[in-house]
Structure formats: structure tokens, C-alpha cells
Amino acid sequence: MPFEGIRQNKSLQALLGLVFGTVFGFLLQKGGVTLYDVIIGQLLLTDFTVVKVMLSAILVGMVGVHAMKAAGLVRLHVRAGSVGSTVIGGLIFGVGFAVLGYCPGTAAGALGSGALDAAVGMAGIVIGAGIFARLYPVLERSVLNRGKFPAETIPQLLGVSPMPVACAVAIMILVILALFATMGL
Amino acid sequence: MSDWLLSATWSPSVVGAGIGILIWMTFLFSDRPLGVSTAYAKTAGMIEKAVSRKNVASMPYYRQVTPEADWQWTIIIGVIAGGFISAYTAGTFALSAVPPLFAETFGADTLFRFAVALAGGIIMGIGARWAGGCTSGHGISGTLQLSLASWVAVICFFAGGILAAGLLFGFRFL
Asked: Is the C-alpha dihedral spanning B113, B114, B115, B118 positive or negative?
């Protein structure tokens, strides 16, 4: 793999995290998705900005990451989920999403734009993560491994190579974005 | 060019494409997907560590998510800084406490908004760690890798979110 020297350099990586985070926060703020009203608007299905940003990011990211993977430049980072972890955790997250009105990344960008309620929300996320860490040994034994998914990726699940799946997802995203445009959403 | 760079908002597809390219960079130079919720768990671990060093060493979760200021922690500091740079240079930086939609639905009381935000944050923090990622880690970085768990997670994020928002604000799209 190229760039191993850079990837193994811990202090350089801490700096890169800061740089990548800054670009991410800048983009989230420019996209308007650091606004409570925009995020709640998405969950109320009256404002589709959040989904448009996410779908465009998935489309562009997917093409580049899979091309680099095919060229041997990067490796994928996927983990198998489970009903007990992914579905239950995802639904809990969704409820928090609607109550807070920001997600972990957009809350940080919102704080940078001056939203003090986002700072309170961030403190809440830290407390929630701390509660989870304390519950982790019990949850790990009882819930998190229930109903393990049979595959790590959708191509593995379907028994095909990533290429046709990536193409299908790309077409699906383009169709959805085109539908949004024609419906004036 | 600089007018555009400093304008208050960019189109969602331009922002999304930028995030996609940013994720190429995190894979290439850091061998990582882009995700921010781990930073919160690390912060919780740092606080636990400041209170009682022994306690953290004995907690299995903090052996997986080590409480140190590495890439996965500095990223959240960057997101705050990036949000500030974008808002400040566009002239839209302003301190606020109660978002307009919240105020018109539940009233403009700052303490009430803070209490709701704290409760929402706690629920979200538990959910993010429970599911192993958030809107960025699962919702964008995981889905673009065609991760099965991430597609299931993002569907559940929105299913839970749309249902809870509908119960709180009324199902406005109906």
C-alpha cells in the first residue's frame, strides 16, 4: 500500500484528522445542514437538503474509493452488523436525531456557526457515549451479537463482484436526485 | 471565485461531491473512513480517565476505543473550526440558542431547548455507539463502501428519526 509512512505517523495523522475535520465542517456549514430547521425539515420530509448532500457524497465517494481499491491504493473498512446492534442502535440514534435536531458531525459544525444548543447536544452525546461504554459488557453479552448479518457487504450478500452493485447504486442515486429536481424538492 | 468561496450556501450536490472527494483523501492518506461519533466516545473516556485512571483501564469498551487525542478525536475539533471558518467568512456567524422551528413549535425558552438538546444528545450518543457509527461513519462512509450494516443503519436512522419527528411536530408531509 502506498503512503504507509504517512499512515503510520501518529502525530501527522492527528494533524490530518484536524485538517480533514476542518474541510468537513466547512462543507457541512456551506451545505446548510448544520441548521436545526434543515435537519428537522428532512425528518419531516419537507426539506430534502440532507438527503441530497448524502446521496451526492455517496455517489462521488463510491466511485473514487472503489476505483482506488481496484488499483490497490486503499482497503475497505467494513464490519458485519447485526439486528441487535445495527437495527436497535440505529432506531435509538434516529430518535435522538429528531429530539436533538443535529447529528454528531453537524452538531459540531453548528457549534462553529454559533448554535449554543448544539454545544449542549454535544455534551449530551458525550454523556450518552459514556453510558454506552458502561453498559457495553452487559449489552455485548445480551443484545449486540443477536441476529448477525450473513455478510459484511452487499456484493458479498448477493455473491457478486462490487462493480455491478456500485453501478446499480449509482443509477439509483442519479434517478432519485433527478426525481427531486423534477418535483422541485 | 472568492465570492463563491465566501458565499453563505453552496448547492447540496456541490457540498456532497466535496464530501465524497474528502473521503477519497481519508482513505488514501489515513487508511480510514470519515466518521465523527468515535470522537465523542473518546471524550467520554478522557473524562473517565481524568476522574479515575484505574476505572478506564478496567472498562472493555475503552480498550477498543482508546481515550487519546488521535485522528478520530482531532477530527471533531476540525469540524467545529471548519463550521466557524465557513460561517465567519460568509458573515453569517451569530450566537443562537433556540432554532426558529423549535421556537415556533415549543416556545422560545432557552433552558427548555437546552434540556431537550441534552436529552436528545444522550439518546443519540447511546444510539451511535450501539449501532457502531453515525450519519457520517455509517450514513456516508459505510454506505459508499456498500457495507450491508451501514445501509441497514442509515435506513434505521431515518425510520426512527422520521417517526420521532412526526410524533413531536406532526406528520407534516401527509
From this structure: positive
Q: What percent of chain A has pLDDT over 90?
A: 98
Among partner residues B30, B74, B155, which is closest to A7 by beta-carbon distance? B30
Under a CB-based contact definition with an 8 Å cutoff, are residues A36 and B102 in contact? Answer: yes
pLDDT band at A151; cut points 50, 70, 90: very high
- Report how far residue B146's alpha carbon sits from residue B164's, in angstroms, rounded to the nearest whole number: 27
Q: Which residue has the cell 434540556?
A: B115
- Cα torsion B72, B36, B64, A82 to 10°: value is -150
Rounded distance between C-alpha atoms, residue A61 and residue A54, angstroms? 10
Mean pLDDT score, A106-117: 98
The reply to whether A173 touches chain B by the CB within 8 Å rule is no
pTM recorded for the entire structure: 0.97
- Report the alpha-carbon distance of residue A150 to residue A47 in Å, rounded: 35
Q: Using the beta-carbon criterion (under 8 Å), do A144 and B130 form an inter-chain contact? A: yes
Q: How far apart are CA B100 and CA B98, in angstroms?
A: 6
